[in-house]
C-alpha cells in the first residue's frame, strides 16, 4: 500500500497544561448543546486547533505526544492517540463515529509481512525496541477497531499502527463471552442509530504502575489490568454520556451483561485520572458526566 500523508505530530511538552475538574447538577432532562459558557478545563488550542474536538480528553502534557492521524479524503481526522514516551505505551485513542463513517467501502487491511506497522508519526526511540506482542500470549488489541474504520482503505490501514494497540488476552477480546468484543459491537450499533448525529469515543487500557499486571512482557511492554471506554452521544435532544470500566481477565466463561461494567463519566475519571469530554462547556459537562448510574443505564438502554 502506498504510504500517504498520515497526519500531524503534536509535542504536548510545549503546552502549559493543568488539569481541572468541575462539579454541578445531575439533572437528566437538562442536557443542552454547547454554548459560549465558561469552560475552565478545555484543551488549549493555540498550537493545535484539533484539540478542541469533543472526542479529545484533557491532554496530559509532560513527556507525552498527541498523534493525529488524517486521511487524504473528505473525512479528515481519522483518530488520535496520546502516547506516553516514558512508559512507551498509549494512554488513549479518540475518534468520532457518524453515519458516513459507518458506510463500509473497504475490507480489513491484511499484509503477509507487515500486519502491524510502526507509526510514521512516532519519533525514534519512543516505542519499544521491538513488537513485543508476537509469541507473548497476548493479542494485538485494537483500541480504535478496524471494524470502526471501514469507510476507506487508508483509514483502516492506520488502525493497525502499533500505537493503536494494547496487549489483550484472547478471552477478553475474541472469545464467545468476550466483553470487549461485545462492547465494540454495541458501540457500532449506537453509532448506526438513525437518531445519532455524532458518537464521540475514547478508549484505552490503564498504564500507570498501580494499574498494570506485575510482569512486563519481554521486559518492556506494559499489560493493562483494566480497559475503559468513554462515550458521548450527540443527537437532536442534546448529549448523553456513559463510561465502561472492565477488568482485563484471562478467562470469561459466562455471559455478563454490558451493564455490569457501566459507570458514569465522573466515576471513570476518578478511576483513570483522565478528564474526558473537557471541551464541553462546564455546565453541560457536569450534567452529562455526573448523572446517577441507573439513569445513565436507562438513557443508553442497558
How would the blueprint of this fold be written?
Layout: E1 7-11, E2 64-70, E3 77-84, E4 89-97, E5 139-142, H1 153-158, E6 165-168, H2 170-173, H3 179-192, E7 198-205, E8 226-235, E9 238-247, E10 262-263, H4 265-272, H5 282-289, H6 293-299
Mean pLDDT: 89
Cα(first) to Cα(last) distance is 41 Å
Number of strands: 10
Strand content: 15-25%
Give a brief rundown of this model.
The chain is α+β, with helices and mostly antiparallel strands and 302 residues long. Helices cover 16% and strands 22% of the residues. Mean pLDDT is 89; it is low at 1-7 and 12-32.
Explain what the structure shows:
The chain is of the alpha+beta class and 302 residues long. It is 16% helix and 22% strand. The protein is built from six helices and ten strands; from the N terminus they run βββββαβααββββααα. The protein has an eight-stranded antiparallel beta sheet with strand order 1-2-3-4-7-8-9-10, sandwiched between helices. A hairpin with a 4-residue loop joins strand 3 (77-84) and strand 4.
List the main descriptive attributes of the protein structure presented here.
302 residues, globular, 10 strands, 22% strand, two-stranded antiparallel ribbon, 6 helices, eight-stranded antiparallel sheet, 16% helix
